[in-house]
Amino acid sequence: QNNNLGTDHAQASTWMAFGPHVKGGVYGDYPGLAPTDLESGRYLRQTVDYRDILSEIMGPKFVGLPQADANSLFPNYAGATTPLDFMV
Known about the structure:
Blueprint: H1 50-58, H2 67-71
């Protein structure tokens, strides 16, 4: 995240997680490429916040922080409203 609270090159991207602690699958929703589905009429719309991913990795299932502490790593972030639950 940069000083403008953005990521410089639109908002959406692809993340991959590997290892024995990861539940396989696809997480998030595909928003579509119709002009009305795009962010600002030109960018793929983000459906999962990167902080949801990183706070789950830092949480009790993997790194071991209590989930509230993992969520508090990011200023002004209250945690995922619907956890991704991709860690075993």
